[in-house]
Amino acid sequence: MKGNLKLLKIEGLFFSLTSSSRESRAVLIHQLSKKLTQKLPFKLHGLAVRSTFHPSHSIFFVCTKKSVRVYDLLKAKLIKKLDTGLREASSISVHPGGDNVIVGSKEGKLCWFDMDLSSKPYKILKCHPKDINNVVFHRSYPLFASCSDDGTAYIFHGMVYSDLNQNPLIVPLEILRGHKHSNGRGILDCKFHPRQPWLFTAGADKLIKLYCH
User: Fold this and answer.
1) I need a surface site. Which of 84, 141, 143, 203 has the fewest CB within 10 A?
2) Which of 127, 165, 164 is nearest to 144 (CA)?
3) How does DSSP classify residue 197?
4) Percentages (nearest 5) of helix, strand, coil residues in the chain
5) Residues 6 or more apart from 143 whose CB is under 8 A from it?
């Protein structure tokens, strides 16, 4: 099964697997401590491309090509639908605070959602001329990143304030280059170091690079 993995401790260790199919088992949730696997107890509306957990609550995000559906797993209900307005979403990341979400797309656009404000994007950034393959928030620094088949990774400052009346501050910081194209593909994935302001990138050129400020 082709998919992506996300880890979170809720009441034990869980991870989700998303398959690029329209089957009822396209999104699976696995609980390692009990060796249990269950399919998502909701009807999927659209083709699921990614899934991820809320950092601290039993909230589960399923990103389809057109929208993000937010579920409460304990209450077994849909609590929010985020309308991306994108042609085809490709990736999703949830801010460590849990109320802000970024979504990357196949048209090189990145959407920032403040779920306390609206189900529509708070900000849309056109940052890549080719497909965005992944977006990611840093766990502890006010940073987020995107990577693309154009061979670049973009680093942004993204400050979320505790004052709910203050909108998030988004500032482009740097464009990282260094990967060569291979068969029309560029940077396939990116991940932040859990403690340092460092970014790892994995390219179609079969290289993994570490960028340090």
Assistant:
1) 141
2) 127
3) S
4) 0, 55, 45
5) 137, 155, 156, 157, 158, 173, 192, 197
